[in-house]
Structures are given as C-alpha cells and as structure tokens.
Amino acid sequence: MKWPFEAIEIINLPKDQDKATTHRYGPNTFKLHRLPVPKQGRVLGLVGTTGIGKSTALRVLAGKLKLNLNPPGWQEILTYNQGSELESYFIGILEKKSRAVIKRQYVDHIPRVAQGNTVGDLSGRELQRFAIAIAAIEKSEIYMFDEPSSYLDVKQRLKAAQAAETPLGSAEEIIETYT
C-alpha cells in the first residue's frame, strides 16, 4: 500500500537480537527493541498489538522508567545512546529543559487516584475525555497520549485526536500509542 506525503513510515523490528534490546524486565521476559526517536514539531505515533512495549517506551521517553542497562543509571543510558538523537533528547529530560506529560493508558484506574467523588462517578468514555483534557492543558514540551481512543466512539476519537495534536501548552513533540 502506498501512503501519500510519507504519512506513514514502517520500521521493521529485529526478530530476536540481544544487541538491539534496550530494556527487559527480567530473564526470559518481555524485551523492548530500540526506542522511537521523538522529533521536535512532529507527531510520533506508536501502533501495534498489545504487549509489544508501547507504554514502556513512553515511560522511558518521559524519564519515568530507566532502561535497565548494567548498571541502570542515567549516565549509562546517555553512554548507550551516545551520538544518537536520543542522547540529546534524554539530556533535555534530565536537565529539565524538556518536560513530558503522559496521558495514562488505563483511564479506569483514575477514580482510584483522583480526589473527590465526581471523578469516581464518570463512565469510561468520560474518564478518557477527562484524562485527555488534563494532559492537554498542562504546560509541557512533550505530550504523550497512551491509548487515547479507548472507550470513545468515532466522533469522540476525532475530537480526541484534535486535542492531542494541538494541546494548550507549548508542544515540541507529541507521541501517541494505539493498539
């Protein structure tokens, strides 16, 4: 299939190459192969089946999860990514020149962490819209929307996409994941 204007770029992942493994939760467990490279002024979409590491990649890119290199420190992460676009990206996160906001994947967990009764009474659709709105109004350079279309009908998915692509903060990068 041919896409106009280079709208979609497909990057093949390695089948089972340890040298391309950037994160692993433990022996014989899930492996994350390479990280996507966010670019300023661009929307980056991560699309794939459940369990391939989209949410893990977002947590790493937001600086909320360290790659488990040996040892798993930020200096090792910078050394591992030395000379790549990810090195300067991570330096921006570490030096707090760039701030990442993540719209959480599991919006049904929001009532457990939010204060007040009104949030606890919201439906899945309303929780999704609430989570997108909260993320979109934060002032940040990087916005990450993890599974922004779950619980939404077609019209609401289009509105959510518009909100995600034009957040109220000063977005440099926007990353979205879809199953």
Automatic annotation (TrEMBL):
Give start and end of each AAA+ ATPase domain.
Answer: 40-179
Keywords, comma-separated and alphabetical:
ATP-binding, Nucleotide-binding
Q: Is Translocase one of the keywords?
A: no
Q: Name one Pfam family in it.
A: ABC_tran
Q: Name one GO molecular function term.
A: ATP binding
Q: In its UniProt entry, what is this protein called?
A: ABC transporter ABCE
Source species, please? Parasponia andersonii
